[in-house]
């Protein structure tokens, strides 16, 4: 689980292994620190996202798996956060093939223009 503060239209990244996210730095340098190297090759075929604690805002958020600092097809969008209950999105259609040593990170972007949600994000990926 990662805690994120999402400035409008600014990506935030977190490490897949540790969940660590440094909200004081949204630069490409922090993206490099957030990346986890893949120990083996596989194909990701399922992305699941859970968001809670959104401070009462109803923003739209997009989540994307990054591979070697590039967005992949594995992405999902929460159209409107529920101000009370956890909200989810998933992508079970797209696939991403990774090789040993590829660097992976998760990215979240707030698509709204009116607020700055503070959220807890859980992510799950299936790789075979």
Explain how this protein is built.
- The chain is mainly beta and 128 residues long.
- It has a single domain, classed as Jelly Rolls.
- Helix content is 5%, strand content 48%.
- The chain contains 1 helix and 10 strands; from the N terminus they run E-E-H-E-E-E-E-E-E-E-E.
- It has one helix spanning 28-34, and strands at 2-5, 12-14, 36-37, 42-52, 61-67, 70-78, 87-91, 96-98, 103-110, 118-127.
- Strands 1, 4, 7, 8 and 10 form a 5-stranded antiparallel sheet that branches. Strands 2, 3, 5, 6 and 9 form a 5-stranded antiparallel sheet that branches.
- The longest helix is centred in the first third of the chain and has 7 residues, at 28-34.
- It is elongated.
- It starts with a strand and ends with a strand.
- The mean pLDDT is 76.
List the helices and strands and how they pair.
Blueprint: E1 2-5, E2 12-14, H1 28-34, E3 36-37, E4 42-52, E5 61-67, E6 70-78, E7 87-91, E8 96-98, E9 103-110, E10 118-127
Antiparallel strand pairs: 1-10, 2-9, 3-9, 4-7, 4-8, 4-10, 5-6, 5-9
Summarize the structure.
By secondary structure, the protein is mainly β.
- Helices and strands: which structural class? mainly beta
Q: Measure the end-to-end span.
A: 22 Å
What order do the SSEs take from the amino end to the carboxyl end, as H and E?
EEHEEEEEEEE
- The count of β-strands is 10
| Overall tally of domains | 1
Give the second-level CATH assignment, the architecture.
Sandwich
Q: Radius of gyration, Cα only, in angstroms? A: 14 Å
Helix content: under 10%
Query: Can you identify the CATH class?
Result: Mainly Beta
Q: Count of helices?
A: 1
Apparent shape: elongated
Strand content: over 45%
Question: Which oligomeric form is depicted?
Answer: single chain
CATH topology, anyone?
A: Jelly Rolls
Average pLDDT confidence is 76
Largest pleated sheet? 5 strands, antiparallel
The low-confidence runs, each spanning 5 or more residues with pLDDT under 50, are none
């Amino acid at each position: 689980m990662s805690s994120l503060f999402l400035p409008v239209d600014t990506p935030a990244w977190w490490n897949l292994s540790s969940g660590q996210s440094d909200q004081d730095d949204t630069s490409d340098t922090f993206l490099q620190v957030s990346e986890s190297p893949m120990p083996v090759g596989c194909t990701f075929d399922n992305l699941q996202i859970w968001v809670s604690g959104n401070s009462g805002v109803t923003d739209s958020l997009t989540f994307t798996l990054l591979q070697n600092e590039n967005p992949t097809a594995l992405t999902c969008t929460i159209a409107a956060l529920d101000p009370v209950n956890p909200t989810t999105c998933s992508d079970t259609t797209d696939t991403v093939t990774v090789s040993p040593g590829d660097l992976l990170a998760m990215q979240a972007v707030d698509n709204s223009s009116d607020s700055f949600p503070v959220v807890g994000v859980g992510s799950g990926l299936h790789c075979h």
